[in-house]
Amino acid sequence: MTITITAFERSPDGGMGLSRDVRVRWALEELGQPYDVRLVSFAALKEPAYRAMQPFGQIPAYTEGDLVLFETGSIILHLAEQHEGLLPRDADGRSRAITWMFAAIGTIEPPILDLATAKFAEGREPWTEQRLPLIEARIHARLQELADYLGDADWLDGDFSAGDLMMVHVLQRLKPSGLLDKHPILAAYVARGEARPAYQRAFAAQLAINAPRG
Amino acid sequence: MTITITAFERSPDGGMGLSRDVRVRWALEELGQPYDVRLVSFAALKEPAYRAMQPFGQIPAYTEGDLVLFETGSIILHLAEQHEGLLPRDADGRSRAITWMFAAIGTIEPPILDLATAKFAEGREPWTEQRLPLIEARIHARLQELADYLGDADWLDGDFSAGDLMMVHVLQRLKPSGLLDKHPILAAYVARGEARPAYQRAFAAQLAINAPRG
């Protein structure tokens, strides 16, 4: 059955690869699965037709025959269970990889989202300049814990997994801020993720849509 | 094999049931699985012995023989795959229930965490009083979308699932703020969750540890 994901008609990041469809594109490339993309405008995300598929008006939504899914973690877990390559074969290793998927979303991403909210939703508020160091300190605390855990390992738990894919993409959102540079262990970890051919293909595919037109 | 979870020696909420171990206790009760609890002090959460098990010093951590897991979503998914009762039997329904687990953590919880951060970490900052309405507006927007989706259904997708369990517990965190009262559909949804005998047992078990001593 054809897999279709939704993506921004024009990503707010102008092709940096930070929009969440890239996570799913990357997973599909790792698993060697072809997919179609349906581009959606910001206006269309608010319309009932889209909300019927994705109640929160976010991208990506995923369709495969009659099945409709959303949330990148859920989509990637669904794909990783059907096709080999993103989860270990042994049950314990599989559960640990899924732990890292949830840790990326539940523990590492929230303070990173906070930074984005401060800059974009509250960028003109008088308090934002004073708040930024507090938010950055919370991010650094989590990054330090993650770096302490990772140490000199290549990936979070053995081979590259869906947990690494999610974590690398969550960390990539920090690149424009420069915060990642203070954690060389994590900067190198992100670079390892970005060096994977499947990531390169996913990045190129979104860039073909989002690159600034000359 | 014996299941052991960690919990706060003394929960910051004084027994309201909002600490994350309650999610896992609830899942274990729904599935009829016995478990042990290891109580941990705030100081112990920072120690290397605990960090070796849970790199971010959070509760709950989960052990079952040699397997160590963390993140409530991951623990509950692991349990729901081994024991019947929290995921539909059909593959598509199962993937949709997992979508709601991720939506609880990835979409609904972040603005709710923001409110907690504003009140506790930034409670004395001069800007917090002005920021609270902005944070509350972001929470209400998500709650409205969730309520629009839920409508007059009892649960998010057919029978009660691990997705509902996660979502109800995430929403419960809003109870002290009164924000949930403005969304009667969701207040009733949370009440349905709390009325489940398994929830009642989980709540009583944490209360026995955390109730204020007279």
TrEMBL record, chains A, B:
Spans through the membrane: none
Domain GST N-terminal per the UniProt entry, residue ranges: 8-87
CDD domains: GST_C_8, GST_N_GTT1_like
Domain GST C-terminal, first and last residues per copy: 90-214
Record SUPFAM superfamilies: GST C-terminal domain-like, Thioredoxin-like
Pfam families documented for this protein: GST_N_3 (PF13417)
Entry-linked InterPro entries: Glutathione-S-Trfase_C-like, Glutathione-S-Trfase_C_sf, Glutathione_S-Trfase, Glutathione_S-Trfase_N, Thioredoxin-like_sf
Descriptive protein name: Glutathione S-transferase family protein
Organism for this UniProt entry: Paradevosia shaoguanensis
